[in-house]
Every structure is written in C-alpha cells, then in structure tokens.
User: Fold these one by one.
Assistant:
Number 1:
Amino acid sequence: MSHDPVETNYRSNARPFAAILEQRLSRRNILASLPTASSAGVLAGFGLVGCSNSSDSNTSTAARPAAMSFTSVAKSTANNVQVPTGYSARVLYAKGDPINNNVPEYANDGSDMDFEQRAGDEHDGMYYFGLSDSGLPDNTASTRGLLCMNHENLEDTELHPNGPTAAADNGGSRPEAEVRKEMNAHGVSIVEVVDDGNGFRVNRSSGFNRRITAFTEMDIRGPVRGDTALVTPFSNGTETRGTLNNCANGFTPWGTYLTCEENWFGYWNRGDDETVRNSSDNELLAAYGIGAGSRGFANREWDTVNGEAFARFDVTAAADGNGNTDWRNEQNNFGYVVEIDPFDPQSRPQKRTALGRFAHEGCWIGPVTAGEPLVFYMGDDSRNEYIYKFVSDAKWNPEDATGGLEIGDKYMDSGKLYAARFNADGSGDWLHITFGTATDTATGSDYVISSLADALLGTRIVADRLGATPMDRPEWAAVDPITGETYMTLTNSSSGSSGRGQGGSGSEEADAANPRSYVDGGGNRNGHIIRWRETTGNASTTFMWDIYLFGADSDIDDDGAATDTDNINISRLTDSNDFSSPDGLYFDSRGILWIQTDDGAFNETNDQLLAALPGTVGDGVPKAVTSATNDGGSTTVMTFAGQDASDNNLRRFLVGPQGCEITGITFTPDHKTLFVNVQHPSSPASGAWPALSGVATDDGDAGRGRSATVVITRDDGGEIAL
Ligand code: FEO
Ligand code: CA
Ligand code: CA
C-alpha cells in the first residue's frame, strides 16, 4: 500500500497526538456526566453538542414566529453584498486565507501555493459547531466554534497566475505543482472562529484547524466496504484517498459533520471502450455519467502527472489488467456521504456507503427521538434523478449525543435506503433499495445485483427499477423543527426529458410533483420547493406531499409578456420576494426557513437569500398547471400548491455580488450571528469582490474574485430576522 507524501506533510502541522487524546478523553468524561435524556426535548436542551446545535432537527413545542422584523432588500446587480437596513456584513474567511501561521497572507494573483494550509476554493455547505471556553463541544456556545465548510470546485483561471497549463503545452504532463494546488483547493475546511467582542475572526493558532483535500486518506464504511468493485492498487476496498466536489452537507446528533460528494463522476479519464469491461460494469459506469473512451467534464488531466496519487484519475481498464493492477475501480470509491469529526483533527473521514451512491447534494437529519430510528434525507442533483432517505437500524440512544465517529458506525453503517415516489394524488411511497427482490434484474438492464453492496453501488439503477419519481434536480433539504416536515429544493430543469446530468436543453415532461414546463422547448426554468410529511414517523414507508413554493419572476413570464400567475408565478411572488432556482435551504431552530439561490435565468438580480415563515403540508389548494409542449400544443397536470407567498411569510434578506451563487448557511445558537457563503463571484475588470479590506458591502477592489464566508450581524446586537 502506498501513501501520498502530501498527506504526511500536512498531518505534521496538526497537534501532537497526546493533546488530541487528552481532548477526546475529556469529551467522553463530560458525556459520562450528562443526565440521561429520555426525549428529543431533553436532548434539545443539552449544553453539549446535540442535534439542536442550530438547525435543530428535533420537533419543538414552540410556535413559529408570527412575523419577521426586517425590511425586504431590493433586487440588486451591484458587485457587493446587500443586507437589510440595520445589519452589517463582513468577510470572515475567503479563498486562500491561511488556516495557520505557517503561510503568508493570500496574494490573490495566482502565485500562492500550499492550499493544504489555506481556505480552499468555492465555499459551499457549512455548519457551526459550538466550542466551550475549555475547547469542548458546546451547542450553547455562540462566541467560539468550529466552522466546517465544503470547497466544491475550482475557479481554474484565478487559481494560477495565467490559468492552468495544459498537458499538451508541458511535454504531455500537467505541472505537478499546479495539480497539487488544484487537488488541495478541493475538500473541506475546519477552522476555529472566535468572537472577542468585535465580531468573529478565524483563530489561526487553533489546533482544530484542518484541511481535508483530494489527498486525505479515508475509510470506506458500511455494506460496500471491501467489495471487489472498490479494489485498487492502493487498497482492498477498505480505504481510499480524498473527497471530491463536496457540495452541501449535514450534521449528526453526535457532533460530527457530513460532507457530500456531488459531481465526483466528472473527474476521471476513462480511456477504455466497452469491450474491456463486462456489460454490468459498463452499465454501472454509464448510469453515473462515466462514458467509455472519454474524459469527464471536470477532468483536469490530473492523471498526466507522474506518481500513483495522480495516475489513479486514469480509470482506463487495461485489456490484460484487473483492479489490483490498474485504476479501473477508483471511481467506485467516490459518490458517498462522508463523515468527519471536527473535534478530532487526527481522525480519518469515513465514507458511509449505506446511504447510497449518487450525486449527493447533502444529507439532512430528521426528527431525533429517543427509542426511534434516525432518518437522513438526501437528493441526487442531476436531472431526472431521485430523492432518498436512509433509516438507521439502530434506535436513538441520547447517551450517544457525542462521541464522534464510532457513534457514526452505529447509526450510519446499517439501515434501509429508500427512493421516493410522488403519486399524483398527493401521497408518496418510500421504495426500498436492497437486493434479493424483483429489482435484482430488469428487462433491458444488464447490471447484476447479488449483494447489498451491488445495490448500493448502483443506487440509481435500483431506483430506476423501482419506479421512483424523476425530479427537477434535487438540491438541499431542511427539516422543520416545528412540524417535523421536510422541505427540498428542486432547482430547475431546463434539460432533456431523458438521460442524466445538469446541463443540456430540450423538453421536460411535467408531472404532479414537477408540474411546470414552460421554458421554450420545455423545462422548469425557475425551480420549486417540495415538502412532505411522514405518515407514521421516521421509519414510515408512506408520506403526504405538496409544493410549498414556486420560483418565478414576478413581472414577466418566459415570453416577456405579463406574468402568467396561473401557470408560472403560481405562488404569487412579488417584487419583494421573487426568486429563481432555489438551491440552499436551512431551518433555524426558531422555525424560520432560509432559501438560497443559484440561478442563471433571473437577470434582474444577483443571487440571493430569502427568509420565510412556512405553513404546513396541505395548507394550499389542488392546482391545475398548463404547460406548452414541444409540438406547439399544451398539457395540463394537477398538483398541490401551498399557500400564496406574501411580504409577511417570504422576504428577501440578502443579495450577493455579481456572478456568485449564495450557499452554505449556519447560525450561532443565539441567532445573533449568521454565516453565509458566497461561491464563485465573478472577476470583472472594474473590480472583483470581495474588497481586499474584507468588507463585504464595499464594491470590489483590484484583484480576483474570491469565494468567501460572510458573517452577518445586527447593528443593535439583536437576533437575526426577529
Ligand atoms: Fe453543488 Fe447541486 O449544487
Ligand atoms: Ca447546490
Ligand atoms: Ca447549485
């Protein structure tokens, strides 16, 4: 077994093992002294890490607030962050910022190296874990915490002085230093943040600070661990290196962070044609968009660098080879939910295969109740993909409320995975993804399922065979702490009616749960938010659903004519709350729902963050929606629309700078500090955001646009939004 030297180097920056051990022991001692919680309500009151850290997934007896106190922010195309009057926004942690004192400040001219010691690129999903004064997990701590965040992807041009050097321009091999930088700018950041009375800053001296990258060693856990389909020259299928394209996230009630591998399938060079692999393997690769004889869309020729840490990105199956001699199986080590213990910098991330393999957007826990199984909700963000849930075999024991990755083994390595079917009558079914059933085989499909590992590796294929409902690109979920109902964004679908992926153009068939198709030629341009209520709790196999909210431009429809409120602006959005392409979604523990956008269709405004006071499944009316079809005719489907939006129940809170998407949202437990990520702002010649001064609301200075975490507070020190 070989190990990459980068891994070894960066670990040398971590704290001595003895200090870690001491901290872990202290944490467990604290646990032992906890009162025994017998209900979710008691857990929510814990002074230590629990699931109520801020996006409280416990149902609560509290009522949702009746109103929000801020005035809606106007739409904006300015190159800065707009927040409501009486609020301030400041850049906390931007791409390239040092996480320790070993590397200099970021020059932001492409010259900076050492990204394993700097903030990665393209900040995305994020979570705040409170830390006590003595450095222990504390979910009441609002002035000291660990901020965990994903670095989804790269702005390739800005990362290098003059953009990336192609292999063809460098003797057939990408420069190793460039590739190391790109791989290290992926992954996850864990940084300690402290509010010393003058607002939060990153504590660069903290022993908790850590970068997880495309080099970091990880364990494969759950039913796929050790499967022959994961065998590589590096491992027998029990460990791997790196996590890629980490989009959204989640947290557990035992105090760990979940990071989710989304567009991981684009990174490979697959040089073999379909004659080398068998038909089952070919079908598995095709279901995940890894075509024969091609490089993926996110391929950066990493495989052209000498050394097996790079060669592994060439997954070509050699005619005379096998999994031990070539990297044909490397891609099967990706596509999972990955669990990280932010409180233990020496711990190895754990890939939790029981939660399925697909373009994981994120992983959000549902209501946590003693004696009941846990549930996690997930979306597969590609067109015509599915919504999933995982139900643990183990019943929740509040004594597990901290404890790190071993507790993850208990709740996340065995359970039942389901895909959602949304029925036209407003009911829904959770369809079990497993083996030993009729879905082991299917007419016209060669993928062979003879174990649970096979079923999980080919999650998408099993969901196809089960008849799950293809959705308009599932993104984030959020579980309502007041009602226990789950909301999920369906960002848009301007894509073809068949096949998988996020791009393309063409028609999209409408159905009850994806009822709009109104882009020229078909498609749901502005997206919507679906929600559901389990019939009988977490383990339920049936649910009721409706559509909470439809994105729309409030004053023009697709043709530029007066808005079509019957078929497009169904939620009756207005100038103060219209939005398009919902993506990030987050319930704070007070019951306010936060909606973030990643839009390419709504050119009246940059991307935004809205705050909402939602109702409940069934609070609206049955609704007939008519869509144009490709042949010039029309089609009408029945759906269930939630109550209309109003200025009281939906309001714009923030608008970001040019070219960005707004994503990654988390609060301190006192709701006085809000952290939001600005991803991939553009770099206009007139000045890139953020200003080098670190002030988020200034227009840009010279330099290159940088993804960044923005910290938002109220000038009078009060709670955000109320
Ligand atoms: Fe990374 Fe689905 O957004
Ligand atoms: Ca997203
Ligand atoms: Ca997105």
Number 2:
Amino acid sequence: MNASCRKIKQQGGSFALISLDLDNFRHINDTLGHKIGDAVLVAIARRLSDSLTPQDMLVRVAGDQFVVMMPSASANEIIQHARQLFSTAAAPLQIEHYVLLLTASIGVVWSPQNGAESRLLLQNAEIAMYRSKYRGRNQVTCFDDNMRTELERQTGLTQALRLALESKRDLRLVFQPQFSLVDRHLTGAEVLLRWRHPQLGDISPAEFVPLAEQAGLSGLLDRFVMEQAAIQQAAWVRAGFSLKLSINLSVLSLRVTGLAKEILALLGKYDIPAQLMEVEVTESVDLEGSSEAMAEILQLRAAGVSIALDDFGTGHSSLSYMQQLPLDIVKIDQSFIRSIQPTECPGNAILRAIIALAKALHLEIIAEGVETEEQHSWLAAEGCDIAQGYLHGKPVDRLEFEQRYLRQSA
Ligand code: C2E
Ligand code: CA
Ligand code: CA
C-alpha cells in the first residue's frame, strides 16, 4: 500500500482511502467458532474484490479490517463507492448452514487533503471508521480534522479517568432531590458523579461516563459510586434521616455477574435497609440481550432494592422492556417534560399515554428535568408521582443537600 501511495503521489495524482471494518465480527468468532469466522473473512474479501474496478486496490490490514485505495474522484463519487462496498459487505452471506447478516463501519479519507503520508492517512481513515462505530455502526463517515482533536482529548481523558478511579481522587458525589408531586415532600435523591480533572477542570458525566464504558472502566466507576453512596447513606440513616438514594448502574457492569451480590454485601456492611436503595438502568440493546444482567437485576429486586428504568422513552423497544424487566419505577426522560405545552399538543398526548401505561403496570412515575411551575402543575394534574429537576433543586454536594433539604424535611 505504501508503495502504491508513493507511486500515485509521484505521478501527481490524488486518491481516496476507504477503511472498512465488519461490525461485531468478534461475536461471530465467539459464537460460531474461528473456522466460520475465517470463512466469513474469505467470502467478504472476495465480494469486495469483485466489486472493485481495475484501478482500485484492496488490502486486508488486520483481522476483519479492509482498506480500499482508489483514484480520487469527486467526493460524491467516492462516498457512493463506499456505500456500494458497504452494501456488498452487508448482503446475506451463507457459510455452511448458517445465513449471516453482516454490517460494516466505514471511514473515508482523501490524499493529500487528509494527510500526505500514508501512515497518517491510514490512521485518519481508521479514526473516521471508529466514528462510524461510535455513532451506532453500520454507516459511512468522512474524516475531518476535528475528529483527530476530539480523539486526542478522549484518549487523554480516559487515561486521567483511570487514574482518578484507581486513586479515588478528584471524584465526588452530588445529590439531586426528588419531591412528591402530591404534597411536595422530599422522597429521595439521585446520586450523580462529578469529576474535576486536575488541568481541565470539571468534566461532564455526559462526556466521561460513555468514555468509561468504552474503556472498560464502568465496573470501576459504578463500584466507586456504590461504595461512596453506601457510606453517605449509612451516615444519614445513623442521623435519623430516611430517604431513598438512587444510583445509576451501567448495563456493562451489570453484565458481569457478581455486582448484585456486591451491592447487597455493601448494604449489609453499612447496615442500610435495601428499601432505601434504588438502582437506575437505561434501556439498551445490551440489556435486552443479556440474561446475566437480567439475573443481577432480579437478585437486587428480590432483596428489596427498587429498580428504575431511566430515560424512559428515548431508548429502543421501550414497551417490550416494560414487560420483561422487573421494574418498580419509570423515569420519564427530560425531553418529554420539555415538550409540555399549556395548550393541547401531540407532546402532551404522548406524555399522557406514557403515564397511563406506567400506571396500568403499577409503576411509580418520576418526571425528570422539571424546570417550571407549569410543568409541575401539569404533571401533578396528570397523576405523576415524583418530580426531579432544576425547579426543585439542582444536584448539590453533601453539605448543601443536608442544609437545604434534609434539615428542612426533618
Ligand atoms: P441521568 O441519569 O439522566 O441524570 C440526570 C441528568 O439530568 C443529570 O445530569 C442532572 O444534573 C440533569 N438534570 C436534572 N434536572 C435537570 C433539569 O431540570 N434540567 C436539565 N437541563 N437537566 C437536569 P448529569 O449529572 O450531568 O449526568 C448526566 C448523565 O451522566 C446521567 O444522566 C447519567 O446517565 C450519567 N451519570 C451521572 N452520574 C453517574 C454515575 O454516578 N454513574 C453512572 N453510571 N452514570 C452517571
Ligand atoms: Ca439517572
Ligand atoms: Ca435520566
């Protein structure tokens, strides 16, 4: 590939590189064995090479990753070409008696615009390809320089986060109060993690939680939060406050067996009634496909820990979830609360239907992101149970939470 790049460059030509990586290929190897995996790669390589013109060149760079080099044409033509490769790879494939449906993630770069040197070009094509994976796989992404800057930031943040979690430094919990929509009394608090990077300052969990998940750090992160929350809860129980604390658990941590046992052991160690603990899980493909995660959730619930479905309405197959998961609570996502209008509108109707559904299943309903009195009244009138949002209180640290909310409610 290097020699070809050089040759084209010497001739003054420009070219495009398309990096193609099969999605979830490891899964095929793990479930059907390496023999089938190898046969898939051979078949895909043949398909790709059959779809090329004589000027194009195909190279398998690693495992299930291929690169196609082609003379530069207009951006549209190259993207068209990439899409064609992509449907070539995605057509149903029969190997022995298995029929496999594969998808691929693709990244595209141009020389010399995206790098004059072949190593840099390949790297950039890979960065664009990983962006396709990050966006949900099964798509084509063209490289731009911001992606590199972003990747460098993410790599730096991930390393720093690993250090923070291992040393338990620069991390702290904040608590956001939840209030009854019936009589406005304090019912509980959601525990949220905060991280102050030594140089970059506060990093939002919306940025670092997904990074932790990608880097395999979510188990470490969730355990840190669990332990700190248990220590805090024990102190509040000793001081005579009885309030439910809700912690967020990543589906990735739940898929590794043993987490439920650890949580229950923590409750035992710190003498906390299970009824004062709640865990929030988000609907996702990973959860639905995982009997391990389901078993952990069942174990927690059997011990008396409440289970809440977080961000309800934003994930996939919400309805099938409500049927399968042993749930106590649904937390309706903020986006639905934001769409409440004073006069009747489709948003209101959808929200009303969600509330009716949750009620029919005897679930407690928490509305997230309540910011105005109008939203509060609407939700109260519709029979929602609990409100959480800036109207009632932002997430605050332990001391402020005690002063503002706990002492008031006592
Ligand atoms: P989430 O679980 O949906 O948490 C609610 C988020 O909405 C929090 O953002 C909270 O500060 C914010 N919020 C609450 N009320 C309002 C409101 O009225 N208006 C608006 N605009 N926002 C409101 P935060 O703390 O930045 O957390 C973002 C996400 O990061 C969380 O979403 C959760 O998915 C994740 N996360 C945070 N802490 C943890 C943690 O300890 N463990 C895990 N696994 N994930 C966490
Ligand atoms: Ca949550
Ligand atoms: Ca939420």
